[in-house]
Amino acid sequence: MSVSFDRHRNRLRAAIAVTGALLLAVPALAQDAKPAPAPATPPAAAAPAPVPEPSASHLAAARQLVVASGMSRSFDAAVPHMMAQLTQTMSQTRPEVMTDLKAVLEQLKPDFAKDIDQMTDKAAHIYAQYLSEDDIKAAITFFTSDAGKNYVKSEPLYFNAVINAMQDWHMQLQSELMTKVRAEMQKRGKTL
120, 67 in Cβ contact below 8 A? Predict the structure, then answer.
């Protein structure tokens, strides 16, 4: 599971990087375009509306959704993954401390379980900010159904496949965009 978590995180970072590069390339290509005129008066900045603290039942439902949707799996996997990485690194660089390190890591597990619980609460607060309690309860109904459980169980598999497809699509799209932009810029006497 920790390898899948790392692979998922790395693929997501790569997809974001490709998207960012694509988005950064577009303004650079538009350097010959005339800038839009500045507005006569800048619009007044709207103060964000304060978000009321969700009710206890809303937060409890949101917390249940964090677990039922499978989101908490990534929180649960984070600490063991970090501990395994530390153990692997130390076994190569400081093998003489391994016995004590394993004992210390075992001793620290309960402390980090609290951190996982705090992250689950943070995620629940975020859900409660964006979804009504009724919407959260409807989502819980889905995720606790047989179809929802199957969705959560197979989510890592298809998410990895979608990330791979998205990376391929971004690379193809970026190449196609640059080819077309170069051809159009060439027509205007500009070489990229």
Answer: yes
Say how far apart CA 59 and CA 56 lie, in whole Å.
Answer: 5
Full-model pTM: 0.59
Q: How far apart are the first and last CA of the chain?
A: 45
**CA angle 25–168–177, rounded 5-degree value:** 35
pLDDT of residue 28 exceeding 90: no
- Mean pLDDT value across residues 31-41: 47
Q: Among residues 133, 1, 145, 158, which one has the least CA distance to residue 68?
A: 145
**Sign of dihedral through CA atoms 167, 1, 131, 139?**
positive
94, two tokens = 């400081």
The predicted-structure confidence for 89-105, as pLDDT tens digits, reads as follows: 999 999 999 999 999 99
Tell me the three-class secondary structure of 55-77, residue by residue: CHHHHHHHHHHHHHCCHHHHHHH
SS (H, E, C) 126-167: HHHHHCCHHHHHHHHHHHCCHHHHHHHHHHHHHHHHHHHHHH
Question: How far is 58 from 61, CA to CA, in rounded Å?
Answer: 5
Residue 65 has pLDDT above 80, yes or no: yes
> Is 156 exposed, middle or buried (CB count within 10 Å of its CB: 0-12, 13-18, 19+)?
middle
